[in-house]
Structures are given as structure tokens and as C-alpha cells.
Write a structure and sequence with these properties.
Layout lengths: L2 H16 L5 H17 L4 H17 L8 H17 L14 E7 L5 H14 L5 E5 L7 H12 L2 E2 L8 H14 L4 E5 L8 H14 L3 E7 L4 H13 L4 E5 L8 H10 L3 E5 L7 E3 L2 H9 L2 H27 L5 H14 L1 H7 L5 H9 L4 H12 L3 H5 L6 H10 L4 H23 L4 H7 L1
Helix pairs in contact: 1-2, 1-4, 2-3, 3-4, 4-11, 4-12, 5-6, 7-8, 9-10, 12-20, 13-14, 13-16, 14-15, 18-19, 19-20
The structure holds guanosine-5'-diphosphate.
The site of guanosine-5'-diphosphate has 18 residues, from helix 5.
Length: about 450
């Protein structure tokens, strides 16, 4: 499904990764091409826009790790953003409810609802060892109930005996009762579809929902219908409420836009992919794996990840070594501040350290949010190397220069220096303890 998009993107990134240095213009040009490729893959327009905006701003702000090229860095950023767009974590069917757990399948006619009902039942039975009952609530299409019964039989799954003349809600009630009496873990209700969304369909779905109180409402949508599938998901969610999406016919030559836009547009996760007509043609939806499939650059992504880990380790080791000697200069402070930004500010960081209650209180009083941290990093960035190593040389005129260089006031510079002094004293005290103190042990 992602073949042509994947080809386009690898073309773009091949060019980019082969270069040594990248200008902002290079990145912009690449982003224009990515945008075009996504639009041609039928990804919703506003999803495309927000995607490329985020990639661009991350790419501009990113520090390039020494052992990778800027192009590789951009690939990694695009990859991470793709994963985020797809929902980050894989989400599967949630069975965390009292048995029998009711699952309701909804969707248009021909989307693959009945086939998917059987696929899910088979998977829950074989992989999760659950006892599953399936029931067709489709009284509109003459052969629908029989179709599900046959599918059940082929896969060794019990289906609710067919009783002619019952309404969908009657069947739902009977299915739940049978599931309870029969000791089933899960009961899957396959509802009727229409060729398009209409009011009676939505009313019927709402009625069934009210009676069955399903733990999961899964929308089955045909990936070949592209943006229509996305709009369908939005309508169903607004009217009935869905808990997840199953995209079918992903083995076909759809352009992938539906899969890529679904999550961002509806806020609901794609949980499963239908990958063929057979009853075992069902896959979990793993955002990370899908992103790899689309980018086709798994090697580069893991290269950058490894390099980033190494850098963190290197820095941490150096910092630990210095701390052991009781040294804590302004470079160290800047580095700590940058890390704090990553892990949720100063109180997040200090919360992880033992024995710093007093300083923590003082720092909290200083209101150290992200903005303050950024300002402090800017102040340190305006100092010379010598000043960072040895803050004692900072007299009034230098402080003035630093304040204007970082767009702050002399008081801000003083406040930062005071904080540094407190931390340096603390580090020194810890450094004197045997073995480098708690912090030394933590970091080493
Ligand atoms: P329903 O009307 O929504 O219940 O649709 P059905 O379950 O009857 O499916 C309609 C057709 O789509 C059948 O021929 C299925 O075999 C086929 N189908 C369902 N899911 C997939 C899929 O993931 N891939 C392919 N290639 N065909 C599928």
C-alpha cells in the first residue's frame, strides 16, 4: 500500500543523505518534495501541513550528532514525526473488561466487516486463547447471517444460532445472554452496513450500542477508498463513537493516505490491518514498523539512535568524572540545563536526586520553567570560554555585556551565577564523599 510513497521518499532522502552539509534551503526543498509526495499519496491536506511544519521546526532546532550527517539527521526527524502521526504506540484490541467482553463491528457494506469479524475471532481464539462467540446483527442483507455462520464454522468459532425475524437489538440481547450463559470471554457483534452513511444506519448503531454496551467499537474501513475512509471514520466517531479502526485491503494498491491521516484526523487509533481475503490475513498496526516500511530507511534511523545514545553516555561519563573531582563549571551547568529541558524542568530533575531538598525548594521559588531554562542557557551561551570555566572573572562590565548578548538583565545573570555557586558547592560536597557520592555513582 505504501510502495509508491516509499519510493518517492527514498528518492528524496537518498539525495539528502549523500551530501555532507545541508543548508536551510536544502531542507526546505526536501520538505517541499515530501509535502508533494504525501499529497499525492492522498494524505489529508492539513495533516500534511502540520507534518511538514513540525519536521521543519525540529530540523532547524536539532543539534547534529557528530557521527552522523545532517541528511541522516533529517531522515530520523521525518521518521519520528511519521511515528507520531501514526499514533506512536501500537494499540491492540482491549479485552480488559468483565467477560463476556462485547465488541461491536461497524462500517459500510463491502468494507470487509464480516470477514474481519471472523479474522478477529480467529486471532482471539488462537493467539489469546479466548472463547469467542460471533453474531451477525445484519438483517438487511439476506445472506449476511449465513455468511458469518459459515466463516465461523470454517474457523472453528461458535456463532449465535440464527433465528428468523428478529431485530438487530433483539439479536444483540440474545447474543449477550448466550455469551454469558455459555461462559464466553468475548462476543463480537457484526452489524449491518449500508452503501453510504444515512440516518437510519446511525440510529440502528446507536440502539445496538445502548443495549450491548460494547467495550470496543471497531470501525472497519476500506483503505482503497482513501479520504472517503477518513471522512467515514470521522462521521462514525461523531455519531456513534468508535474506539479503534481496522483498515482493510491494505494488500491492494491504495496510496496509503487513509492509513496516514486516520489517526491525526480522528484521534482514534488504527488497531489492525486487513491484508488479504484469508481469515488469517490480519496484522497489528505498529506505528514504528509502518514508518520504517514507508521510509525504507530503518538502517539510518537506528544508526542515528545509536549515535545519540553514545553521545549521551559520553557526556554523562565526562560529567561524572568532573563531579568526582568536585568540578562543576558553567559548561556543566549549561549541559544540565539542556537535559532538564528534556526531562521536564528543574523540579523533574531534582526530584530524581536524593538529598537536595533545600536547593530544590529554593529553585522552585525561582520559578524554573522551560522559558527560564532557555534564558539561562542563552546567558551561558553569551559567555566566553574562559568565563564559563572560571566565573570569578565576571565583574560588572562583563555581566553587562553578557546580559545584552543574551537579551536579559544583569539581575538575571546574577541570579544564574548564584544558582551555579550553590550547585557547585553541592557538587563539591558530594565529590568529597567516598566514591564520588550518590550523583557520581548515578552517572558513572
Ligand atoms: P462486509 O459487507 O463489510 O461485511 O464485507 P465482507 O466481509 O463481505 O467483504 C467484502 C469482500 O472484501 C470479500 O470478498 C472479502 O474477501 C474482501 N476482503 C475483506 N477484507 C479484505 C482484505 O483485507 N484484503 C482483501 N484483498 N480483501 C478483503
Amino acid at each position: 500500500m505504501f510502495d509508491s510513497l516509499s519510493e518517492r521518499l527514498s528518492g528524496i532522502f537518498d539525495k539528502l543523505t549523500r551530501r555532507g552539509a545541508l543548508s536551510e534551503a536544502d531542507v526546505n526543498e526536501a520538505m517541499r518534495e515530501v509535502r508533494r509526495a504525501l499529497i499525492e499519496a492522498d494524505v489529508a491536506l492539513d495533516v500534511v501541513r502540520s507534518f511538514t511544519d513540525k519536521v521543519r521546526s525540529r530540523a532547524v532546532g536539532a543539534e547534529v550528532i557528530r557521527s552522523v550527517t545532517p541528511g541522516q539527521m533529517v531522515v530520523k526527524i521525518v521518521h519520528d514525526q511519521l511515528v507520531e502521526m501514526l499514533g506512536s504506540e501500537a494499540e491492540t484490541i482491549d479485552l480488559n473488561a468483565p467477560a463476556p467482553v462485547p465488541i461491536m463491528m461497524v462500517g459500510l457494506q463491502g468494507s470487509g466487516k464480516t470477514t474481519t469479524t471472523a479474522k478477529i475471532a480467529r486471532r482471539l481464539k488462537e493467539r489469546d486463547k479466548r472463547k469467542v462467540l460471533i453474531a451477525s446483527l445484519d438483517v438487511r442483507r439476506p445472506a449476511a447471517q449465513e455468511q458469518l455462520r459459515v466463516l465461523g464454522e470454517q474457523n472453528g468459532i461458535d456463532s449465535l444460532p440464527i433465528v428468523a425475524g428478529q431485530s438487530p437489538t433483539d439479536i444483540a440481547t440474545r447474543a449477550l445472554q448466550a455469551a454469558r450463559l455459555g461462559g464466553y470471554d468475548v462476543v463480537i457483534l457484526d452489524t449491518a452496513g449500508r452503501t453510504h452513511i444515512d440516518e437510519p444506519l446511525m440510529v440502528e448503531m446507536a440502539d445496538i450500542k445502548a443495549i450491548a454496551k460494547p467495550h470496543e467499537i471497531l470501525l472497519v474501513a476500506d483503505s482503497l477508498t482513501g479520504q472517503d475512509a477518513v471522512n467515514l471514520a470521522r462521521s462514525f466517531d461523531e455519531r456513534v463513537g468508535i474506539t479503534g479502526i481496522v483498515l482493510t485491503r491494505t494488500d491492494g494498491d491504495g496510496r496509503g493516505g487513509a492509513a496516514l491521516s486516520m489517526r491525526a484526523v480522528t484521534g482514534k487509533p488504527i488497531k489492525l490491518l486487513g491484508t488479504g481475503e484469508k481469515s488469517d490475513a490480519l496484522e497489528d498496526f505498529h506505528p514504528g514498523r509502518i514508518a520504517n516500511r514507508i521510509l525504507g530507511m530503518g538502517d539510518i534511523v537506528s544508526l542515528v539512535e545509536k549515535a545519540a545514545q553514545n553521545i549521551d553516555m559520553e557526556q554523562a561519563k565526562k560529567a561524572a568524572e568532573k563531579m568526582r573531582k568536585g568540578i562543576f563549571d558553567l559548561d556543566d551547568l549549561a549541559q544540565q540545563l539542556r537535559q532538564m529541558e528534556k526531562i521536564g524542568g528543574m523540579s523533574g530533575m531534582l526530584g530524581m536526586m536524593p538529598g537536595v531538598g533545600k536547593i530544590k525548594k529554593q529553585l522552585e521559588g525561582a520559578n524554573l520553567d522551560d522559558r527560564v531554562i532557555k534564558r539561562q542557557v542563552a546567558i551561558i551561551g553569551s559567555m566566553t570560554k574562559e568565563e564559563r570555566r572560571n566565573p570569578d572573572v565576571l565583574k560588572a562590565s562583563r555581566k553587562k555585556r553578557i546580559a545584552s548578548g543574551s537579551g536579559t538583565k544583569v539581575e538575571d545573570v546574577n541570579r544564574l551565577l548564584k544558582m551555579h555557586r550553590q550547585m557547585a558547592d553541592m557538587m563539591k560536597a558530594m565529590g568529597k564523599q567516598k566514591g564520588g557520592g550518590m550523583l557520581g555513582k548515578m552517572m558513572g
